[in-house]
Design brief:
The chain is built from 26 helices and 24 strands. By secondary structure, the chain is of the alpha/beta class.
């Protein structure tokens, strides 16, 4: 058969419900000198059956990879099979309009110095762009280019939704890019679009890993998030040998997800206990699920998990952690084959009201064998509403996603205040409660606010713009800081901000809200650097963070900004608090509580 002018590449993975639409749109093209290379990237559904009737067309060829390897690998394999001089793309969830190929072929024929032609596109159901969609790279379905020796960036190199970084950038070096300015295709909007699996907060690294069952660490960088290098970050954990089983070691089945600081569970493995993981489907970006990038946890197959768990015979099921895991943890609880079940929840129960999962959450507390609460206040709140259904002898207080001790280093920087004589405070994450007027008042006290987290800053742009007007020179923006740099980076500040909020519960648990009951995750971040922790004074109300800070002597509470300024200028007292935090900071690591957790498990056997 003669070589076609255009090779259309169709990468596909578990999109049998869409693929017929895509194929029909190709066969309806007015331009007919094409071939189609379908590259099935290890689908777990019968994609071949869905395309069978189209394979009668000699222009259509179907290939299947044995296992999913990612978009870049699928496209490179398809390129290797392509015979045409021109390359076009038709992802199996997108569609062409009838004149799409003809219009792009005409551009490349009429522009010999052009290497790539780009069409306009319909997107998000009823919107259109005559070229690149605002906020997104040029999409595969829009492009036709001359065949070159360039290769797509593959998953083992980088996972990203930035197609310019993956391939278009290389083509740009070879010639012009010409736009048709005509809408001749559609980038179909649906839940499992690749960019939605990649970009936070809808997707992210954990959503991507779960969807494609990626078993190795990733280098990951979506177009709206920070670069994540799991190879380097977790190398010390991943490359060490498994710990020999302790003579009385437990088999612990982790159920649900591990949220932040997931590597903390290795403290259990390091004590000779065997860890298994049974993970929820469709996690949010911060819901860490397996296969875990740091290893040393054996995954249980999701399909027919009941039989797999019976075969393993774990000693205890440890189910956790956030509200998204409630339905799956509940399912495991209800189908539990007689194994002690421990429920650990670090999330607002009020979200479960809103999401309709409160009845399941109640079961997790009242029908489990043991319950772990993130604060004493949280335990007391549930006791008010569930009463005698809870057994106080089967409870433990332990925060939910404490970091691993290895991130608490000893490399500290000099204080910024020693250089300029002013006070420097830090916000690692959302500046909750620091309204622009509050930062303005802080500036009058010569108190600087250093705001970390470039992604979060994008969400707080309006706040930033207002603060810069009201407190010029006193707001400083910094990129996100990884765990390994917490101590060094944050040690240069005088104090760090917890959530600033006014309680109004008057000491009555029924009136308490999540802010009153929660320990914010940033407590451990600030503790790593030995920072005094700042929060509003809620004396007379139930406030978990204030009770903790007062008990440990690690915080500064204030009623007015002027009073806070006076306290921060009391260098002797500030240094005393700083020493208290430093001396107790290991209490904010998971390792410090691992033995206590194991003892709790044993008490339930």
């Amino acid at each position: 058969m003669a070589k076609p002018l255009v090779s259309v590449l169709m990468p596909t993975y578990n999109q049998h419900a869409f693929i017929t639409r895509a194929l029909e749109s190709l066969t309806a093209q007015t331009f007919t000198d094409w071939e189609l290379v379908i590259m099935d990237d290890g689908s777990t559904v019968e994609t071949r059956i869905a395309v069978e009737s189209f394979l009668e067309d000699v222009r259509v060829r179907y290939y299947r990879r044995a296992a999913n390897g990612g978009l870049g690998l699928a496209l490179n394999d398809a390129l290797a099979e392509a015979r045409g001089e021109l390359i076009a793309y038709l992802p199996s969830d997108d569609i062409y309009y009838a004149d799409h190929l003809a219009s792009l072929v005409a551009i490349l024929r009429n522009n010999p110095d052009a290497v790539m032609a780009v069409s306009g596109v319909r997107h998000h159901y009823n919107r259109s762009a005559d070229g690149q969609i605002s906020g997104y790279p040029v999409q595969l379905v829009q492009v036709m280019h001359r065949k070159t020796i360039d290769r797509w960036l593959e998953r083992t190199e980088l996972v990203t939704d930035d197609l310019h970084r993956m391939y278009w950038g290389a083509l740009e070096q070879r010639g012009k890019i010409v736009y048709s300015r005509r809408v001749t295709c559609e980038w179909v909007h649906h839940r499992d679009q690749l960019h939605r699996l990649l970009r936070e907060p809808e997707g992210g690294i954990n959503a991507y890993r779960s969807h494609f069952n990626v078993k190795h660490p990733l280098r990951f960088h979506s177009t709206i998030g920070n670069f994540i290098d799991e190879y380097e970050h977790y190398r010390p954990f991943r490359e060490r040998p498994d710990t020999p089983a302790a003579p009385d070691g437990l088999k612990i089945l982790l159920v649900g997800e591990l949220a932040y600081n997931a590597e903390r569970v290795l403290a259990l493995e390091e004590r000779g206990h065997k860890l298994y993981g049974l993970w929820m489907k469709q996690p949010h970006w911060y819901n860490t699920v397996g296969p875990l990038p740091f290893g040393h946890v054996e995954d249980v197959p999701y399909d027919n998990w009941v039989e797999s768990v019976k075969a393993i015979q774990p000693d205890v099921i440890y189910a956790l952690l956030n509200w998204q895991a409630v339905p799956f943890a509940h399912d495991v609880l209800m189908r539990n084959p007689g194994i002690p079940f421990v429920w650990h929840f670090k999330e607002s129960p009020f979200i479960c009201f809103d999401r309709g999962t409160w009845p399941q959450l109640v079961d997790l507390y009242t029908k489990s064998d043991g319950q772990i609460y993130c604060s004493p206040e949280m335990r007391d709140w549930f006791a008010v509403f569930l009463g005698s259904a809870l057994d106080p002898t089967r409870t433990l207080i332990m925060d939910g996603d404490l970091p691993k001790r290895e991130w608490f280093t000893d490399d500290c920087l000099p204080l910024l205040s020693e250089q300029d004589g002013e006070i420097h405070t830090v916000v690692p994450g959302r500046p909750i409660g620091l309204h622009p007027s509050v930062v303005e008042a802080l500036a009058r006290e010569r108190i600087h606010v250093h705001f970390y987290g470039d992604y979060t800053q994008g969400q707080w742009k309006e706040w930033i713009d207002k603060v810069k007007v009201l407190a010029p020179g006193y707001l400083h923006l910094h990129p996100n800081v990884g765990q390994q740099y917490w101590t060094r980076e944050f040690s240069q500040y005088d104090a760090g901000w917890l959530h600033v909020f006014p309680s109004d519960n008057g000491g009555e648990l029924r009136r308490a809200i999540w802010d009153d009951l929660n320990y914010p995750a940033r407590i451990a971040t600030l503790a790593a650097a030995g920072l005094p922790m700042l929060q509003g004074d809620n004396t007379g109300h139930i406030a978990a963070t204030q009770a903790l800070a007062e008990t440990m002597g690690i915080g500064i509470c204030f009623r007015t900004i002027e009073a806070l300024g006076s306290k921060l200028r009391d260098r002797e007292n500030l240094q005393r608090i700083r020493q208290n935090v430093w001396q107790q900071r290991q209490q904010f690591t998971f390792d410090a509580h691992a033995d206590r957790l194991i003892a709790f498990f044993r008490s339930l056997l």
